[in-house]
Design the sequence.
């Protein structure tokens, strides 16, 4: 090959698809969107224009929502597409999966689905009571707005329960219903019976912790599904579910070689407009961020700090959470999901800790 051989630089046209192909792709997205809207019973209430433009939808009961066609097909797809300079067409990242392989993200009206679930759950409560050996004694005063009943279990324990079947298919019950059962109604509805059945395992967990010189760092509740932090005689700081720990020879996850996760070296802060979540991860953090975006809609990244020294990610997380708690800022969900009005405070705390302890990262 001669010295005068040159590799031609890619032209701007090589990086873009032709206007005709882009227009066809956009039309395909709109066709998929309108078909999905029809299948789920929505009605389009505004003009359909571009795939990145907001569209107003309403259900048969009058509930409304706003979506963009491309994000309605898949949240991740919507975050990787930007408007093309021409306006109506769009650009997609090189190597992006084709539209046909994505599952639809637009769902039926949640309020209507919840109402249908509540009606089915009320109607099947009597059958649920028979199935779980509950005797219905009387109606109970309700502060939640949902029907409640005074019941007695097979062992004579009397208590009040939400008069709706938590096992009714079609929806996972939320905590607002006040069920005494666990996730999806799989546990015994009688809290007293459940506590009695779990007590031996709780006692055994404490006994084994003493025998193995393991310090339990969290206050234990009456739930064997609880996860507690431990410090073993070797100084390992780990966490384990009580029920899971009883299945191991050693309670300490590191000493037993089970469930050891990579040391987190990533700190991030993401939001969805209503909620802000700070957190830690390992690697490049993208897998965890994808999970937050798909499961909770937390798609806006405000901080993504990678390659932190060992221990730094946990330290900045602890500093942020402890400082928020000190100032009376409580999570609205779980332990790390806060109201988005506190985002400036979260970022200020994280940036301040990193500036003070890792000045080379500035």
Sequence:
């Amino acid at each position: 090959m001669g010295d005068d051989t040159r590799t031609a630089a890619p032209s701007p046209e090589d990086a873009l698809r032709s206007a005709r192909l882009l227009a066809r792709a956009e039309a395909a997205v709109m066709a998929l969107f309108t078909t999905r809207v029809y299948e789920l019973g929505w009605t389009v209430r505004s003009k359909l224009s571009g795939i990145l433009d907001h569209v107003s939808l309403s259900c048969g009961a009058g509930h409304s929502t706003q979506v963009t066609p491309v994000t309605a097909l898949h949240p991740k797809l919507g975050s990787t597409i930007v408007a093309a300079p021409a306006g109506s067409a769009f650009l997609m990242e090189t190597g992006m999966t084709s539209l046909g392989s994505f599952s639809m993200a637009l769902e039926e009206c949640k309020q209507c689905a919840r109402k249908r679930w509540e009606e089915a759950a009320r109607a099947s409560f009597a059958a649920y009571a028979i199935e779980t050996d509950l005797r219905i004694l009387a109606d109970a005063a309700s502060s939640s707005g949902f029907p409640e009943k005074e019941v007695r279990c097979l062992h004579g324990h009397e208590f009040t329960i939400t008069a709706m079947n938590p096992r009714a298919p079609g929806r996972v019950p939320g905590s607002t219903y006040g069920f005494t059962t666990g996730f999806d109604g799989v546990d015994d509805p009688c809290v007293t019976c459940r506590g009695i059945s779990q007590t031996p395992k709780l006692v055994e967990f404490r006994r084994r912790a003493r025998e193995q010189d393991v310090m339990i760092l969290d206050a234990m509740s009456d739930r064997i599904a609880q996860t507690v932090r431990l410090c073993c005689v070797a100084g390992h700081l780990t966490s384990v579910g009580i029920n899971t720990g009883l299945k191991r020879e050693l309670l300490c996850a590191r000493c037993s070689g089970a469930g050891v996760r990579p040391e987190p070296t990533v700190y991030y802060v993401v939001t969805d407009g209503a909620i802000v979540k700070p957190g830690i991860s390992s690697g490049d953090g993208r897998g965890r961020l994808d999970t937050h975006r798909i499961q909770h809609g937390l798609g806006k990244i405000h901080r993504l700090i990678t390659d932190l020294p060992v221990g730094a990610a946990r330290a900045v997380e602890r500093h942020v959470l402890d400082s928020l708690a000190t100032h009376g800022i409580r999570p609205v969900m779980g332990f790390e999901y806060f109201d988005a009005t506190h985002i400036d405070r979260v970022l200020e705390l994280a940036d301040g800790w990193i500036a003070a302890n890792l000045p080379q990262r500035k």
Observations:
- The longest helix spans residues 19-39.
- The longest strand covers residues 275-281.
- The chain is about 35% helix and 20% strand.
- The chain has a mean pLDDT of 80.
